[in-house]
């Protein structure tokens, strides 16, 4: 098991451009070629109408990414949901890593939360907990979930992580790309890199959002825009957002004062360095960190390791992400110092009027 974990870590580092493939060059290149063939065949069959694209009973806005990992999709889904509250939005997710056994899983009907993780997937549950009055549904077959979410009163569906889900039609196709590395550091397809699809498929996007954890200069934005425009539709606008920590809660969502003194930070998200960097930018003394794989299901040994790290580093608080907090509800009393969840919000930094026009054009 330890050997498997080391191989997985090595591949993840290669995918993110932080390590050379070395002896794994040929196996990864072969796997990448097979993956590319599968993706291209699937898209060809959708383009030719062999695979059918079905229409939901209402308007659909897709928010997705072309890369694996933390592009900033979920915070942007939340931003869109809040901007469309008067249109009765509902959020539809595949439910990745959720352990529900049904074709359709209602995370929230807009008023009552369903099962917490691991039954519900962590990101949909996090959204449902923070967006009161907005139904959240998980369904691997999105069209089935679309019908259910309309039954729950939704007037418009926001498809979370929907760029590659071509079996359901969308009226606005929004693509999120990282500002620093729009196509990943390695710029290669999975498993050699983090691209889910070839860069050329960006052409399907109606609106492109460049996301970062802090404000980027006009020069850096221009560089990202230039790289993206090589593959995007001529008329597809490119806007930008920045995310930051805006406050702290306990793991149940109750607001708390910011931590004072040294903190131990841990998370199981893609791109954990962004989380640690955000804490430091706010002036918090991050005395110790522990990172776990994305969507990690925590166990007693993990909690003990975090508690030990906090003790060894002299931390007065332990801080994690909202996404991790919903996977820690069974461990609320297991830490030796107070546990806080950092609330992360995305704000528009360029193109607010462009987004508002695109949304208004749907109704």
From TrEMBL:
- Key word Cell membrane present in the record? no
To which pathway does this protein belong? Glycolipid biosynthesis; lipid IV(A) biosynthesis; lipid IV(A) from (3R)-3-hydroxytetradecanoyl-[acyl-carrier-protein] and UDP-N-acetyl-alpha-D-glucosamine: step 6/6
Question: Keywords, A to Z?
Answer: ATP-binding, Kinase, Lipid A biosynthesis, Lipid biosynthesis, Lipid metabolism, Nucleotide-binding, Transferase
- Per UniProt, the enzyme's principal EC class comes to transferase
Concerning Pfam families, the annotation shows:
LpxK
What InterPro entries does UniProt report for this protein, alphabetically? Answer: LpxK
Tell me a GO biological process for this protein: lipid A biosynthetic process
- Choose one Gene Ontology CC annotation of this protein and give it: plasma membrane
Q: Which GO terms describe its molecular function?
A: ATP binding; lipid-A 4'-kinase activity
Question: What EC number is given for this enzyme?
Answer: 2.7.1.130
Which PANTHER family is this protein grouped with? Answer: TETRAACYLDISACCHARIDE 4'-KINASE, TETRAACYLDISACCHARIDE 4'-KINASE, MITOCHONDRIAL-RELATED
The name of this protein is tetraacyldisaccharide 4'-kinase
């Amino acid at each position: 098991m330890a050997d498997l974990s080391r191989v997985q870590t090595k591949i993840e580092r290669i995918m993110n451009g932080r390590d050379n493939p070395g002896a794994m060059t040929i196996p990864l290149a072969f796997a990448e070629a097979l993956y590319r063939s599968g993706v291209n065949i699937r898209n060809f069959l959708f383009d030719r109408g062999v695979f059918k694209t079905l229409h939901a009973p209402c308007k659909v806005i897709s928010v997705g990414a072309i890369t694996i990992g933390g592009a900033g999709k979920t915070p942007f889904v939340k931003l869109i949901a809040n901007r469309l509250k008067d249109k009765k939005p509902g959020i539809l997710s595949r439910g990745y890593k959720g352990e529900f056994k049904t074709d359709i899983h209602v995370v929230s009907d807009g008023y009552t939360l369903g099962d917490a993780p691991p039954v519900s997937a962590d990101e949909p549950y996090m959204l449902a907990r923070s967006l009161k009055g907005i139904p959240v549904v998980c369904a691997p077959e999105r069209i089935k979930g679309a019908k259910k979410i309309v039954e729950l009163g939704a007037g418009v569906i926001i498809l979370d992580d929907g760029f590659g889900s071509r079996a359901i039609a969308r009226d606005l196709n929004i693509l999120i790309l990282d500002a620093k590395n729009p196509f990943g550091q390695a710029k290669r397809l999975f498993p050699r890199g983090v691209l889910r699809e070839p860069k050329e498929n960006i052409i399907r996007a109606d609106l492109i959002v460049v996301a970062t954890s802090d404000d980027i200069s006009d020069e850096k934005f221009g560089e990202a825009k230039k790289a993206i425009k090589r593959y995007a539709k001529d008329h597809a606008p490119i806007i930008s957002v920045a995310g930051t920590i805006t406050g702290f809660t306990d793991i149940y969502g109750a607001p708390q004062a910011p931590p004072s003194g040294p903190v131990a930070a841990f998370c199981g998200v893609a791109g954990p360095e962004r989380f640690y960097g955000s804490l430091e930018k706010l002036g918090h003394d991050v005395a110790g960190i522990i990172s776990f794989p994305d969507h990690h299901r925590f166990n007693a040994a993990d909690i003990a390791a975090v508690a030990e790290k906090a003790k060894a580093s002299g931390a007065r608080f332990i801080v994690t992400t909202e996404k991790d907090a919903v996977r820690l509800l069974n461990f609320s009393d297991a830490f030796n110092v107070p546990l806080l969840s950092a609330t992360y919000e995305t704000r528009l930094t360029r193109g607010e009027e462009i987004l508002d026009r695109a949304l208004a054009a749907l109704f």
